[in-house]
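Q: Here's a chain of 415 amino acids. Please give me its 3D structure as tokens.
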Amino acid sequence: MKIKNSYVKSIATLVSGSTLAQIISLASFPIMAWLYTPEEIGVLTMILTVITMFSGVISARYDVVIVSDKDEANVHALIKLSFLICLIASIIISLGSTVYFYTTDQFRSSIFWVTCAVFFLLFTSGLTNILMAYNNRNREYKLMTAVQVIRAIFKECLTAIFGMFKFGATGLVLATLVGQAAGLRRQSKSLESKIKDIWNANIRHVAILYLKQPIYSTPSIFVNSFSYASLNIFIQKLFGFSLLGYYYMAFRILGLPLTVISFNISRVYYEEASREYNTTRNYIKTFKKTSIILTLIAVPMVLCMYFLAPPVISWLFGGEWEQTGLFIKVLAPMFGIRFIVSALSPGMLISSKQKLELLIQFLFCIAAILGYMYTKETNSTIVQFLSIISYSYFAIYVVYFLVLYGYSMKNPSNA
């Protein structure tokens, strides 16, 4: 009973702070819609597309196992390895992205600053992943919660200030940069006394020990990120920057529960499920308990977004943003099941099924590409395109959930 109460308390701690961060972000959406044009928001979206694709794999997923490794010396080595990979990858990706941005008129004249922005956003995202993993390992849930709130305050306040002074897309990017970097010092405080041990750590051993991370987990997460980030590219190519701006606002609103609730539950779930597996060789109890919690949150959330989003968005943002409300309605069911399955997906890592996870993630990528090809060939509307994405992704997530459920009951060595 004590373990169960501790588990629920951990989730409650993270979600309570996340709820505050969510409220701050929600309050900023109308302000953002009033102060920026859809095209300016579309420009920000294209920069964030690169970050979305690579931020989850910027350390080759070595940062993820910081949570579960029992050896503190290995943890120090994993932190060092993750940091070095993050730094090198951020440089390579930001330089590589210049080729893409240079082909777009909106970015060509400011290509240097765009490249710098991409680098700093990628690098700070990687640092955040590493520190979050270490904080999670030490169950520093109050710290993790506080950092989320700090970042939301910095980002949304600066977004409003820059908007009032007509900074345009530049203001949106600057606000995102500062918000991403806020709280890093506070997160790293518990590591300050261990810096020497970290830099003297032997990274070769852990690099080989967790070689499955870059080989299987990294491609899987990248493919999953691409399946969503590519939608931004497809929408921009098919329908232009303005409609991309409308879609981005819908995506952010739908993604808030995912970012601040589902991901936090996932962190606690991974830590708790790993402990259960180390004891019982399965993690079905944690899986069922977490699934129930997620479902109880997801169902009313989806119903509210489906029925209330169109009129509420038009009323809050103005009639110009009616499209955003319609996009939310179309995508709500898919985001609901994604909310559940994403939090449970670390089960693939616990069960050592990274190969299968990669195959499942490829299905999302294939669905996105086929949806783009069909829409381009038939000159379909953006609503029709998003409907295709919503239905196909929903079906794949159902299959994904059933696979996760099956492996939660099995001993991974015999599965």
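Q: Can you summarize the key feature?
A: The CA atoms of residues 360 and 400 lie 7 Å apart.
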